[in-house]
Design brief:
Elements lengths: L23 E5 L8 H11 L3 E4 L2 H6 L4 E4 L11 H21 L2 E6 L10 H12 L4 E4 L2 H10 L8 E3 L15 H8 L7 E5 L8 H9 L7 E6 L4 H12 L4 E5 L4 H10 L2 E3 L9 H8 L4 E4 L4 H8 L4 E4 L5 H11 L14 H17 L5 H10 L13 E2 L2
Parallel strand pairs: 1-2, 1-3, 3-4, 4-5, 5-6, 7-8, 7-10, 8-9, 10-11, 11-12
Antiparallel strand pairs: 6-13
């Protein structure tokens, strides 16, 4: 996904005075190259005077941090080999235990409830049960996501939690190109509607099923564009074979440069995200940021997203995806829109403010020296919670 445009990055608050460091956060991760959401949070907190360092095992062992902010605790399970998973799991559990013993607070932003590939479901379930009993705060991207997390991990009900929406990716620049120009630069015909899927291609995202549904749709004038890097060779081969049988399918397999991704989204008539499993979606928000309507399954927080931004921008379908879904969604997407998606609740500055307040409340409630409390108060100066969703909390 592209970087956050400069004009959309958080700018509220002020930096800490030199020599007066704010609270110290170990962010796991601080940034991810393909998704600016993580850097938006970290850089926004730094702008407010917090010290945010990218996670390394050495930094974690050396200590000195007030808070560990983790996004993907299921990472040990990203391997089919059980012995590799076991080693990763032992390191992860030892690290969490060490940080807890030192008094470091631990916060988890709940992007997903389980690892999508599900290589070791039984072991993962037991591990996540252990992990969630050792958390001090959970951050959820939606109300429905929090409810689902509470159902999956009952221990979370007894711990502080807050709903803070996923930040959007900034308003399109005032001098942004038109859809027609984007089509021209891609070498695509202006008179043919384009349905787009983009993002990392993993099995749960159901791209082969999208191509199969499209293949059964007889409209000759529509194009389906698939852009992104497949997570494994077998999946890539399956997608390439399906696409080769239909000249209407346009493939951009591999890493998509930022400029080209913006062109693709701008050129799309409709973005389709046919995931089998979905809780939240950064790809949906990026599409909405670029003012492109989105078709998503009625699962996870997608109905909540539709209610937030408006039914003119998010359309739900009940799986499995079929040609009728695509046909009706394309007609819907092609209709004129005079408004914009209602993205105020997803504004980056408001999302950063909400993180600052949630972390500060957590750390101020924790036992510690007076100097830490002073650092924390400095880190929350000029940080009111402006996001409507960020005010919805649950305390133990």
């Amino acid at each position: 996904m592209p970087r956050m445009p400069e004009h959309a990055r958080p700018s509220s608050g002020r930096r800490a005075v030199s020599g007066s460091p704010g609270p110290r956060i170990l962010a796991w991760p601080k940034r991810i190259a393909v998704n600016p959401y993580f850097a938006t949070i970290s850089e926004g907190l730094e702008h407010k005077g917090w010290t945010v360092k990218d996670f390394t095992y050495l930094r974690a062992l050396l200590g000195g941090f007030d808070l560990l902010h983790i996004h993907f605790p299921t990472f040990p399970f990203n391997n089919r080999r059980l012995w590799i998973t076991g080693i990763r799991l032992a390191i992860f559990a030892s690290l969490i235990a060490l940080l807890r013993a030192r008094g470091t607070r631990i916060a988890w932003t709940v992007h997903n409830l389980a690892h999508h590939e599900g290589y070791h479901p039984g072991l993962e379930k037991r591990t996540m049960g252990w992990f969630t009993r050792r958390l001090d705060l959970t951050i959820h991207l939606s109300d429905s996501g929090r409810k689902a997390a509470f159902e999956a991990f009952p221990a979370l009900r007894a711990r502080p939690s807050v709903v803070i929406p996923h930040a959007h990716y900034g308003e399109p620049p005032p001098n942004g190109i038109s859809r027609e120009t984007a089509l021209d630069r891609l070498g695509w015909a202006r008179d043919k509607p384009v349905i787009l899927f983009f993002g990392q291609i993993r099995s749960y995202k159901n791209v082969p099923e999208l191509i199969r549904a499209f293949a059964r749709w007889p409209r000759a004038d529509v194009r389906l564009a698939i852009a992104g890097e497949a997570s494994d060779g077998r999946l890539q081969q399956e997608i390439a074979a399906l696409a080769s049988a239909d000249a209407r399918v346009l493939l951009r397999l591999g890493t998509v440069p930022e400029d080209e991704l913006r062109l693709l989204v701008t050129a799309a008539t409709l973005v389709v995200l046919p995931y089998r499993e979905i809780l939240n979606s950064g790809a949906a928000l990026l599409s909405l940021t670029q003012r492109r309507p989105v078709l998503v399954p009625d699962r996870g927080a997608m109905a909540e997203l539709q209610a937030a931004v408006g039914p003119g921008w998010v359309r739900l379908f009940h799986p499995p995806l079929d040609p009728d879904h695509l046909d009706s969604a394309l007609c819907w997407a092609a209709s004129r829109r005079d408004d914009r998606p209602a993205l105020a609740d997803f504004a980056p500055a408001a999302v950063v403010d909400a993180h600052a307040r949630a972390f500060a409340e957590l750390l101020l409630a924790a036992p510690g020296p007076a100097r830490r409390a002073s650092r924390i108060r400095r880190g929350t100066e000029n940080a009111p919670i402006r996001a409507r969703d960020a005010a919805r909390r649950t305390q133990p």
